[in-house]
């Protein structure tokens, strides 16, 4: 069997020969990568090969893409594929397409080649290595046809690197201690949903309670002492060898947005459970106790109040929230009681700072930065602060046909101007973003000038001063727009959260662990809020981001990641835990 050691020590010619077929008909890639030997880890080898492609000319990159065959194309029918491509396409069942499926793929291949000038590339073994089915392949094909050429060319190269990663994994006979298990567990949890269409897991719903029980069962099987607390957090404790040391805490949330993804939050629970299971199987104890906390609620879907689980741990749970009601009029207190919890015991959940050494959270990035950098992992430097508002505009509803343009008091036109103001102002500084995510014309009609309009405003930045300046400018701009258009306005603040910097000492330790797996340390900001944001009120926090696929999309069924990225994250987390100081 080929090993990393033999690849490091063999001649350049043998190195190229050994990696024949990893990149389709492209020996120039290992030829150029050979000079970077020795590689400390398989991840370092993968990255070196990838960097060769990234440094290549656009003509060479295009040649690499065109070296790949069409899916279920003429070359496959004639039996002209390489052994690797034959095996991969057969594994996805592309050699067993129905006549209708062949016709659909033939049409998509033709449309794709006309639009882009190169073949559609997809790692048909999929993110989990188990293989995509034909309907998933066709859906991906159709979706990517909507992209622009440069964007799609970059995606083809990413898919080629994924194909090479899987082939290299097989060549070296590598085993995944964490990645496969995490992906399988995520699929199991993804089937527990409040909705028959897509994944929705709202606080204290039947799916939420089932998910808690399943997490508790996996924690127990991994060797942890487990309980579900009064707010619904699932807490697994893995005792350390020194009971006098404060505990290290890790975890994330297990609730989801409506029609969400399988990995948001849940990766940060499942990965630590897999790491503890590995420790337990080998009879290894860390010097410190490790607690894995599956926070019951972070998204605010049911009761419109976020971070319920982590706020309970930090002692910042507001008892007044228990009287909040959901859309069906059920109070949070009733929902907790019906689920067997004691709302009056929530206050006792709070930890004291001296009990906790630090909190580290693993999370999918929920953005495209790592994807664009070609990196599996990143160290979070800060979590952006956010300011959210609801804006209500009132003009005059009047006849669309008889009211002259200069005499209109159009609330929707004012809202449109506000949307552009937010876009323009929040484009002026790095790491500053602004979004109008809700825009409504209540009781609007096609032949009536809108007299009312409602919109949301969300402004975020890692630097509070930058965010506050943008908020001030946008709110002043709204007032000017409304004055000019004779629109009355009401601005209601709904969220104001300061930015949370990650602890430099923890960032350094995570960064060193990332480098030891063979990747460069890469620091980035988090534009999304996370449980680490709330936990910062209790202790030092750090976050490890894991790359998202599909353009970095999240809060969406298309949210995805790979078993190999999860594996690297598990190796880094285990290294961090073993070497924590």
Annotate the secondary structure layout:
Layout (H helix, E strand, L loop, with lengths): L3 H6 L2 H7 L9 H6 L8 H14 L2 H9 L7 H4 L5 H9 L7 H18 L17 H11 L4 H24 L6 H12 L15 H16 L3 E4 L5 E5 L8 E7 L13 H15 L8 E6 L12 H7 L17 H7 L17 E9 L4 H5 L3 E7 L1 E10 L3 E2 L11 H15 L6 E4 L3 E2 L7 E2 L2 E10 L2 H22 L2 E10 L2 E2 L2 H13 L6 E4 L4 H5 L5 E6 L16 H17 L2
Parallel strand pairs: 3-4, 3-5, 5-16, 6-15
Antiparallel strand pairs: 1-2, 2-4, 6-14, 6-16, 7-12, 7-13, 8-11, 9-12, 10-12
Short description:
By secondary structure, the chain is of the alpha+beta class.
Descriptors:
Aminopeptidase; 581 residues; alpha+beta; globular; 9-stranded mixed β-sheet; single chain; Alpha-Beta Plaits; 16 strands; UraD-like; 3 domains; 21 helices; 5-stranded antiparallel β-sheet
What does the model show?
With 581 residues, the chain is an alpha+beta fold. It is built from 21 helices and 16 strands. The protein folds into 3 domains: 4-172, Oxo-4-hydroxy-4-carboxy-5-ureidoimidazoline decarboxylase (UraD-like); 179-382 and 500-564 and 572-576, Aminopeptidase (3-Layer(aba) Sandwich), CATH 3.40.630.10; 391-491, Alpha-Beta Plaits. Strand 1 (225-228) and strand 2 form a beta hairpin. Helix 8 (99-116) packs parallel to helix 9, helix 11 (179-190) crosses helix 13 and helix 13 (267-281) packs across helix 21. It is globular. The mean pLDDT is 95.
């Amino acid at each position: 069997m080929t090993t990393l050691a033999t690849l490091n020590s063999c001649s350049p010619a043998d190195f190229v020969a050994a990696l024949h077929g990893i990149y389709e008909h492209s020996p120039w890639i290992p030829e150029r990568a050979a000079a970077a030997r020795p590689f400390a880890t398989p991840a370092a080898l993968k990255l070196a090969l990838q960097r060769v492609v990234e440094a290549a000319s656009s003509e060479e990159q295009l040649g690499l893409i065109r070296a790949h065959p069409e899916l279920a194309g003429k070359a496959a029918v004639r039996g002209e594929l390489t052994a690797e491509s034959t095996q991969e396409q057969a594994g996805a069942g592309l050699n067993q397409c129905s006549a209708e499926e062949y016709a659909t793929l033939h049409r998509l291949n033709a449309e794709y080649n006309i639009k882009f000038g190169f073949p559609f590339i997809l790692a048909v073994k999929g993110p989990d290595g188990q293989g995509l089915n034909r309907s998933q392949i066709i859906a991906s094909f159709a979706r990517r046809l909507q992209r622009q050429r440069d964007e799609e060319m970059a995606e083809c190269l990413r898919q080629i690197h994924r194909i090479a990663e899987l082939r290299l994994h097989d060549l070296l006979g590598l085993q995944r201690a964490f990645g496969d298990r995490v992906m399988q567990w995520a699929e199991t949890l993804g089937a527990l949903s409040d909705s028959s269409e897509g994944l929705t897991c709202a606080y204290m719903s039947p799916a939420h309670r089932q998910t808690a029980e399943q997490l508790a069962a996996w924690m127990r099987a991994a060797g942890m002492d487990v309980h579900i607390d009064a707010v619904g957090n699932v807490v697994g404790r893995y005792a350390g060898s020194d009971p006098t040391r404060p505990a290290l805490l890790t975890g994330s949330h297990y609730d989801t947005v409506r029609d969400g993804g399988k990995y948001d939050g849940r990766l940060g629970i499942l990965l630590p459970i897999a790491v503890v299971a590995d420790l337990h199987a080998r009879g290894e104890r860390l010097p410190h106790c490790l607690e894995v906390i599956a926070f019951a609620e972070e998204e605010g879907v049911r009761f419109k109040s976020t971070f319920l689980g982590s706020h309970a741990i930090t002692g910042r749970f507001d008892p007044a929230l228990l009287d909040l009601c959901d859309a069906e009029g059920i109070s949070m207190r009733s929902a907790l009681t019906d689920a067997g919890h004691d709302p009056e015991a929530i206050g006792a959940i709070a930890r004291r700072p001296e009990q906790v050494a630090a909190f580290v959270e693993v999370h999918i990035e929920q953005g495209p930065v790592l994807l664009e950098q070609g990196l599996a992992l990143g160290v979070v430097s800060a979590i952006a602060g956010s300011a959210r508002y609801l804006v209500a505009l009132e003009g005059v509803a009047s006849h669309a046909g008889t009211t002259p343009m200069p005499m209109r008091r159009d609330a929707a036109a004012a809202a449109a101007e506000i949307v552009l103001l937010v876009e323009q102002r929040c484009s002026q500084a790095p790491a500053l973003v602004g979004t109008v995510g809700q825009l409504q014309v209540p009781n609007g009609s096609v032949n009536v000038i809108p007299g009312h309009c409602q919109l949301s405003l969300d402004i975020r930045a890692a630097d509070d001063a930058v965010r506050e300046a943008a908020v001030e400018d946008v709110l002043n701009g709204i007032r000017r727009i409304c004055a000019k258009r004779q629109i009355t306005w009401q601005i209601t603040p709904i969220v104001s959260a300061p930015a949370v910097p990650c602890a430099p000492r923890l960032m350094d330790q995570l960064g060193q662990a990332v480098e030891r797996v063979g990747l460069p340390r890469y620091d980035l900001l988090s534009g999304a809020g996370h449980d680490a944001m709330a936990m910062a009120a209790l202790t030092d926090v750090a976050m490890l981001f894991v790359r998202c696929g599909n353009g970095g999309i999240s809060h969406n069924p298309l949210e995805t990641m790979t078993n190999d990225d999860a594996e690297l994250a598990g190796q880094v987390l285990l290294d961090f835990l073993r070497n924590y100081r």
